[in-house]
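Hey, I was hoping to borrow your eyes for a little while. I'm sending you its amino acid sequence along with the C-alpha cells. Take your time with it, there's no hurry, and the full record follows here.
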Amino acid sequence: MKYLFGPVNSRRLGLSLGVDLVPFKTCSLNCVYCECGCTTALTARVEEHVPTDGVIAELDAYLAPRPRLDVITFSGSGEPTLHSGIGRIIDHIRSAHPGYRTALLTNGTLFWREDVRRAVLGADTIVPSLDAAGEEAFARINRPAQGITAAIVVDGLVSLAREYRGELIMEVFIVPGINDGADELGRIRDACERIRPAKIQLNALDRPGTEHWVQPAGRADLERARELFTGFNVEVIARRALRDVQAGGGEARADLERALLATLERRPSTRDDLERTLSVSPDALSRALDALLGEGAVETRIMGGEEYFVKTPQR
C-alpha cells in the first residue's frame, strides 16, 4: 500500500487504519517534538500531493472485506490538510463505506482557509494541535512555514469550531521550559475559551522527537497544567496497555520487512508496539528487525529506559 498504513493501535482512537496524504515530512510546521523527524518540505501550499484517485482505490480495496477497525485516521508523516483532495476522500468514505468513522489528526495551521475548513467538515472527529498561543513559544516549538502565526492558527480554529458539528478535540503538547509555565498555558486556555473544544488532551513526549533536547513532561507537570484548564473536559494522555490486534497477515506476511519500514517511518515503536500493530510473533519480529538493523535500514534509540526502533534517515 502506498497511501495506507497499519492498522495501528492508537492510544486515543483505538484500532486505526492510517491514511497518509503527503510525501514523507511534508508539513507546514517543523515541530521540535515530532516523532517523524525534521520536516524536509516546509510548506503551507495546498495541492494534490498524491493522486486522490489512487488513495480512494486503495481504500476501496482494503475496506471491501469489511475489516475490523475503530476508525480511519488521516495522519502519517506530514500535514494531511495540505492535500487538496482530502474532502473528496472523506466524502467517499462516508458514502461508500458508511460503517467506518473517520478522524483527522492535524496541526491546525490551515483552517484560516475557508476551502480547507469546508473540506474536513465531514470527518467524525478532528484533533488539532495547539501547543502555543503566544508568538514566541509558537515559533520555538512549532517552527512554522512562512506566513503562519499563532494568531492565524487560533483564529482559524475558532472559525472551524463555529462551522464543525463533529467531535473537536484539542491537543496541547507540553514542552518543558517553553509552554509549561502559567503565562503560556494561560494564553492557550484563553484561546480554548474562544474555540470551546469538546475535550482538551494534554500530551507529552513518549517517543524520540526531532530535537534531542526535548524532554518528557512528568506526570506531576501534566497534572499541574491540567489544573489551569478548569471548566474544560481535560484528559492527560499517558501510555496505556495496547489492545490485541487481529490485523491479518501476521507471520505469514510475505513482506514483513516492508511493513516494518512503513510503520517505523511514521512512528518510532517498541518491540511490543510492533508485535501488536503487525500481529507478528516475537521470533518473526526479531528476525525481521535483525535483518533491517544489519542493513542499516533501522536504528535504535533509548528513551525513558525503553528501546525504540526508528527508520534510518535518508533510506
Q: What stands out?
A: Residues 4-236 form a domain with the TIM Barrel fold (CATH 3.20.20.70). The first strand starts at residue 4 and ends at 10. Residues 240-254 have pLDDT under 50 and may be disordered. DSSP finds ten helices and twelve strands in the chain.
